Amino acid sequence: MAEKIKNPRPGFTPEQWVKLRKYSQIFFIIIFLVFFIWSRREFYLNPTADSGIIGKLINLPLKLDPLVMIAQVLASRALLTGSLLSLITIILTLLFGRVWCGWFCPVGTLLEWFPIRSWKKKEPKIPEWLRGIKYILLLVILFASVLSNLSLLFLDPITIFYRTLTTAIWPALDKIVTAIELSLYKISFLQPAISGFDSIIRPTVFPPYPATYRFGALFFGFFLGLFALNILAPRFWCRYLCPLGGLLGFLGKYSLVQCEISEGCTICGNCFASCPTGAIQTRELVYCDPGECTMCMACAADCPGGAIQYPAKIAEVIRQPYDIERKKALISLGTAAIGVGLLESNFLYGRVSPQLLRPPGVVNEEFLSKCIRCGECSTVCPTNAIQLAVPEAGIGGFWTPILVPRIGYCDYSCHACGQVCPVEAIPPLSLEEKRQKVVGKAVIDQDRCLPWAEDQQCIVCEEMCPIPDKAIRLEAIQAVNSEGEEITLLRPEVIRNKCTGCGICENKCPVSGEAAIVILSHGRRHQNSHSLEHEATPGQ
User: Fold this and answer.
1) What is the rounded CA–CA span in Å between residue 184 and residue 206?
2) Is the distance from CB of 235 to CB of 270 less than 8 angstroms?
């Protein structure tokens, strides 16, 4: 092999650029984790305060995502000030190509760090036309957004990263750390150190109490699927499927700085092997497709003849068969129109649960055209009440936030979810405004309630109700207990026009399994509740 020609130009060598990119990837992975941990810490420590600048900074990574912000603006017909931050990423792309994908994106970085394909001896041949899938997905998302549907934004890599951290990775780490602490705490001389360590990490890193998320295996399995695709090709997701990569790839074709291979290329093949996205191709000559290049500069570092440069100039756009063109646009438009139409007709929407509860202040008619499925609200919920919907909200509401009171309740002194939502799908209400918003209504099932069904004393729901003048009242009756003694029994009744549906009564209900008092949406009544949900009258 020919000796590598040294770079005669001043400035960084290709090898130094490659090292700098690796440092950048490590740095931004840490930054994403810092924002994630910071969001939890701030609202666990002070859930009653208005977030101000903190709330705006916490969701900064999502606001830098141009796909999320463009789709949300198209769907909601509203331009938020924070959405303009995505212009930073767009400008960077027009100047330097897909640097977001190669230098900043946490999902792309992790896929590059764990190249499963390198473990295989034989590499499958992937047809190049598959690269067009990411452009089709991009167009379907944008066309559906125009029709006020954001269902496919769950495919955005930044939302994938946040959802997986929230629902799977962080809870698993929390449980592992908790298990280790409990094991070591049995050793008496370690107890002070373990207690001190736990006071440091909670709530700074982990929540005060271990969080529980439903379907965590599903979210983690989806994330692992992205890595499994590396068996077929390095960064398969980035090459063929990522819709954000499609948007940045389209813009990257018109970037000022591009990878350029000079006529001095000897076609040694080093660059083909080193390019993680297969951007270097050949027709009559070897060339680099700027729409696929992530500006990793590995090709330049491996080029023995120094034939690969990155000049700043307006280059000719080389069209590729997998690029966006009329046929793909028409297919995408038709797919989006049919899909949204089926969802609107409820043919694919599925049955919506009567216990579908949204966070405070959410307007259901507008919510699905605003929510970007990022899971940020679930991340900061101190009681773990906000979960991500799987069957409850139908296909159109897949992975949108819902309240599950049996897991956690909407804290009367917290409004964190509205403070961190990057697109205001959950309104940024003040604490007093949030306390007035009705999420649902409590309903008592008298066939399960201990005072009603078994004549046992229980007033937990009334004791826990945070409403100052109580949304649950106790009615005294005379009853006979199991020992034949006559007792005064207090039976709970819901004052419906006072109840906001916070769910603490359902969460704290001591009945095992389904609670005897549940929160239903839209004022629905439990089949066994009869007429016990009491309407307040003057003086009550």
Assistant:
1) 18
2) no
Rounded Cα gap, residues 104 and 245, in angstroms: 12
Determine the length of the chain.
Answer: 540
Under 8 Å between Cβ of 242 and 157: yes
- What CA–CA distance (Å, rounded) separates 251 from 92? 10
Looking only at the bridges linking them, the beta strands covering 486-495 and 533-534 are: parallel
**CA-CA distance, 328 to 132, in Å (whole number)?**
8
Report whether pLDDT(142) > 90: yes
Q: What is the pLDDT of residue 349?
A: 53
What is the crossing angle of helices 216-228 and 157-164, to 10°?
130
Burial of 485 (0-12, 13-18, 19+ CB in 10 A): exposed
Q: Model pTM greater than 0.85?
A: yes
Whole-number Å distance between alpha carbons of 102 and 87: 18
> Is residue 489 within a helix (H) or strand (E), and if so which, with residue range?
strand 486-495
Residue with tokens 């409850």: 392
Q: Which one-letter amino acid corresponds to residue 377?
A: C
Q: Which residue has the tokens 């040294």?
A: 6
User: Per residue, what are the HEC states of 139-179?
Assistant: HHHHHHHHCCCCHHHHHCHHHHHHHHHHHHHHHHHHHHHHH
What pLDDT, on a 0 to 100 scale, did the predictor assign at position 461?
96
Separation between Cα atoms, residue 427 and residue 435, nearest integer Å:
13
Which H, E and C letters describe 422-453, residue by residue? CCCCCCCCCHHHHHHCCCCEEEECCCCCHHHH
Contact 221, 74 (CB under 8 A): no
Q: Is the pLDDT of residue 170 over 70?
A: yes
Distance CA 459, CA 438 (A): 23
What is the tens place of the pLDDT at every residue in 366-412? 898 999 999 989 988 989 999 999 888 888 888 999 999 999 999 99
